[in-house]
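Memo to structure team: turn this sequence into structure tokens by end of day. - J.P.
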Amino acid sequence: MLVSFSVSNFLSFNTETVFSMQSGRVKAKKEHLITTDETAKDLLKFAAIYGRNGAGKSNFIRALDTLKNFVVHGRAPQKAAELWCRSDPANEGHPSCFRISFVAEGSLFEYTVSVVLSTGTVAEEALVLVRGNRRTALFTKEAAGSPYVFHNSIRGRTRDIEVLSRSFDMSGKPFLHSINSGTIGFFMQNPQAGVLRDVYLWFRFTLEIIFPDQPMQETSLLEYNLCKDEFARLLNEFDTGITGIRLEEVSKERVFQELGTHMQHIVNNDMLAAVERQHGGGGVNAMVKKDPPGGTYASVIRNRRNIFIINLGENGTFSFYILKFVHRLGTHEVEFTMERESDGTHRLFQLLEMLVSRKKKVYVIDEINRCLHPLLVVRFVKKYLETAETCDMQLVTTTHETYIIGNKADLVRRDEVWIAGVNGDGSTSLKCLEEERVRADKSLDDNYLDGVWGGVPEFPEDEKTGEAE
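Reply from structure team:
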């Protein structure tokens, strides 16, 4: 579970800016809390970040995404050299710092990495295990060019990890990525360092970051009839006009004709790896669990036009399907592929995946309200919070939809609402509503739209009108 995240010298974030999922003093809606022994305070299951256009809400999501990709894939984003914070010219060439605190496999960790994005140089990196007031640095790198220092608990008698760290250091990639890439044999020979694998897998599978046009990862649930029916039920409940979902078998050629050469190569390799796993093969991919109940493999290829499912049966043969949505028009039914559905249905389909999967994950979504009617956004958040009562999932989202925080909806706690504002130097600020003044005669949405906490557009003509009055 996500505890906190901070960033500095990245896009609109200048000095260290901190976001936290730890609960405040609010007493209401305790069902929104995750109680853990690892953290001093309960953790929130939901948080919404508001703010005017250009305040930096999406930059917050991009910062988290940059950190995840750096750990999982070992690479900085495109044009990384341009992503330093321009609020202070002195920031150019200085490290961008990302720090995240989270609970993985029953332990609280704090991971920090500072990187000079223009050169890809890792300036600092550290992973700390936190137990109460005790902080154990599992590994640290204090400056560019300095060696990694490891705690005895993960070093082992052979000190293989130190040898590997020296070879990794020339790659310019973070150690947490390198030690988990193509080094399965290391963890087999050094089980005491398995905690590094647990942390890496948290970034890879638990932290899921979704931008408006990007699908979630859980679409493979559609392969199972029970989940497929659940998707259809929810889509119908949200008044999309969809009454069912059907899989129509197609040829491999039909699927591949919509893929570029690069994606075809990826899918072919994925299929070969699935066959190898089915026959007891090893390799790095063997640790990636893609096998549904029954031992078969299901994968999903998804774009704006269509959704395809590839299934490996127990007999070792692949089947290919296209997803179709069933609508009832008068007395008869018609079927449409995804490309015939509205943008709102497409977006809702993405969001409903977290309700169907019910996984212990951290979802970070940019613009949850994109393409959706305000009442659908409120209904989705309500359904999410109901689902989260039975599982420890978290949702962090940016939004402009004020209905969520209105008195009529009565959905959120004050410590679940954050405001992205603009500092005097043009950089982004983040503040939680729990620390802000609230007019008792107005609801949270009225306070926000009236500019009580900032984070809303200011128009010169409004100021002139006020002076005239």
